[in-house]
Amino acid sequence: MSPSSTEARRRSPLRRLLADPQAVLSASLLVLVVLLGLLTPLLTDHGPNQVNLDAINAGVGEHGYLLGGDKSGRDIFARLLHSIDTSVVSALIGTSIALAIGITSGLVGGYFGRRTRAVTEWVFNLVMTFPGLLLLIILMPVTKGDYKATMVVFGVLLSPGIYRLVRNLVLGVKNELYVDAARVSGLPDRRILRRHVFTVVRGPVIIATAFLAGSSIAVQSGLAFLGVGSSTVPSFGAMISEGFTNLYEEPQQFLWPSLALGIITASLVLLGNALRDALEGGRPKPSRIVTATSYRPSATEVPSVAGLLTVEDLAIAYPTPTGELKEVVSGVTLSVAAGETLGLVGESGSGKTQTAFAALGVLPPEAVVTRGSIRLDGRELLGLSERELRAVRGTSIAYVPQEPMSNLDPSCTVGAQLVEGVRAATPMSGREARERVLALLARVGIPDPERTFRSYPHQISGGMAQRVLIAGAVAGRPLLLIADEPTTALDVTVQAEILDLLRDLQKDLNMAVLLVTHNFGVVADICGRVAVMREGTVVETGTTDDLFAAPRHPYTRKLLDSILDETALRTDPPTASAGALETETR
Amino acid sequence: MTTLLEVSELRVTYPGRGFRARPHEVLHGVSLAVGQGETLGVVGESGSGKTTIGRSVLGLVPPSGGTVRFQGNDITHAGRKERRALARDIQVVFQDPYSSLNPALTIGDILSEPLVVQGAAAGEARNRVAELLDQVGLPKDASQRLPREFSGGQRQRVAIARALAPAPRLVVCDEPVSALDLTTQARVLDLLVDIQRRTGVAYLFISHDLAVIRHVSHRVSVIHRGDIVETGPAGEITTAPEHPYTQRLLLAAPVADPAEQRRRRSARQRL
């Protein structure tokens, strides 16, 4: 990989955050507000509750009141600054209590066994049932109207949210193999939690913190607005409430605290969003959007290779983060004759699946076909509309995927899915379609078609699921079946049966098969011809017998040499000498 | 040859899913032994319980019956402290090289962590990490990099290096090459065999692939639905097995030789 791309991905979240105008703006607003709050004694001589009866409803700048006086003759500016302190302290208390309780119990409840989790779960569910605001008001006699005590209680009420977030993240990461590996390495639980689990939890918690702070401030102000709690504590809520009663005489008194509160909470929410983008998004967006080239091969070209499916000089590219196109398939030429089986072999990343997907017309939207042609029975497939392609796919080309289970809808019965497919390809009545599907299921070797028809995907085995998908694929009697690693996810004994089935069906229906695989054993078993791919090109094509007997390309030879066959039997005896162990490794 | 690991009549039961679901026994009394410096291959299909054997040896799954003995000591229900001590001697290489390395840690941190926990000094650990990287054929500067900068085969080398870090006597290899490409697969297996020859470490090697098992094992146990059906020298088990299940398994695995594969296919269809 190029050094530049490595650097781009290495860029720390902090630097990404600094590059985001939304984050910079909201963070600087917050810093400014907090600074104003801290510098209060320097900025004003007036106390928040200092009354000057001359200054009742004073205008801006009168009596030394920068923003005027309120209906009791107090300095609005001074009260605003003191309210900032109240808000900041509320936010700090509320969030720190919520984080301390939520993170600790989330880590404990998520990481340790079921019994511990049952306890934490029960406690937090109980906390969640309390009606928050109401409880805070009811507890006023206990908290004695002190907003700090109220915020402690509110922090406890907020903690279930954090608990659930952390618990879910921990449950997810707990089953990662690297946590198992750490346990096998003899790491104590504390260290595993700190090093391996907490790092995953950190990002989402930071984001949640910004929102927690916002809601703490909002609740404190809300309570003060309702007039609950001490009236001597300056607060945006109390100021808004007073301005509200004075709205028709001095509307400005209402404006200032609302504006300040709005700026603070909006900045917190925006900062939270920016944090999420920086910590979780992290994916660089393409700087230049590549529009999919509506590439159309010229119709006059005469195909130089003959066959049912002919792929000529096909190139497929993907946009990189920098906007350039990177070819993953570069100039593939191959053909599949009617009734034959072509094996398309290669290692991961060789472009074999991309080639197959291009023939099916199901490349992802960001993929760009830059040149070449794909013809089925003489008809150009590249550049066909989705509707035209759908008609081709239903009847002429069929597809068998690698993962049978993830290609069946878990919420529908197997039968319903097959009936839907059959009726989409050829219009027929429901009863007819059902008969047809049952016949197909019997044809692909399913012992009790009626039962499988009624089953949901999770009720059948992987091998059965693959048979079901094959039944669906051959329903329209296709000319060509494209199978992408159809047996890779299956056990060898099941694999052998599925290969037998494919061979049998192919003979029966006289269809061509394009089999994408990495397994040379599968190729030897079922393919008549082979095309070997490497790094987006076909390096060698030949009949299976010739290619295995006398590979021409060095890469093919290398692949064939890597196969572990009968000759690869281990013959050396176990190294029993403990002395070798000591000297070599200790 | 001295016996290093001895598993006898091991039973493992997983609790059923859902309310009042019946527990599900995945191992019905499995017995096997691994000698010092030896590779015992355990081959079986998905759901046969082969991975569970490895996990209960490692203490990741609690057995419901039977015993696991390591160097003569019963470790079936070893506590956390005992397990931590065992970590020096028993290690693991998992199947998936993508999820078995913490994506947030550098290779150096991943490799030095177990050493530091076992009480090695920082400089000592650094030297050992360099030694380990060299042992598995990775460049020295790899320790500064993150797992995502490496290919699947290289990541598996890192996982092997991590397992070798405390110089263990036994490494449980759970399908260590199944997620790798053909050419990479062969190289990683050669590396494992090479390390074994040099250090005398024993492997409990778990795989679904007979060809892979044949390549690394001295002896092979075949497991089918939670029972070991056959154990014997690798050569015999993988060429002329006695048990019908092993025979089926052997004939079902396709070989990369069209003529030979045709013969096998008809042999299998006759069976």
From TrEMBL, chain A:
GO terms classed as biological process: peptide transport; transmembrane transport
Keywords per UniProt: ATP-binding, Cell membrane, Membrane, Nucleotide-binding, Transmembrane, Transmembrane helix, Transport
Residues annotated as domain ABC transporter: 309-560
Gene Ontology molecular function: ATP binding; ATP hydrolysis activity
Pfam family of the protein (one): BPD_transp_1
Location of this chain's protein in the cell: Cell membrane; Membrane
Originating species: Streptomyces griseoruber
Chief location category: membrane
Regions that span the bilayer: 21-43, 88-110, 122-143, 149-166, 200-226, 254-275
Keyword Plastid listed: no
Name of the protein in question: ABC transporter
Protein origin, superkingdom: Bacteria
Keyword Secreted applies: no
UniProtKB/TrEMBL annotation, chain B:
Keywords attached to this entry: ATP-binding, Nucleotide-binding, Transport
Gene3D superfamilies for the chain: P-loop containing nucleotide triphosphate hydrolases
Name of this protein: Peptide ABC transporter ATP-binding protein
Recorded GO MF terms: ATP binding; ATP hydrolysis activity
Keyword Cell inner membrane: no
Family of this protein: Belongs to the ABC transporter superfamily.
Organism of origin: Streptomyces griseoruber
Superkingdom assignment: Bacteria
BP GO annotations: peptide transport; transmembrane transport
InterPro entries registered for this protein in UniProt: AAA+_ATPase, ABC_transp_ATP-bind, ABC_transporter-like_ATP-bd, ABC_transporter-like_CS, Oligopep_ABC_C, P-loop_NTPase
SUPFAM superfamilies: P-loop containing nucleoside triphosphate hydrolases
Residue intervals of the ABC transporter domain: 5-250
Chloroplast as UniProt keyword: no
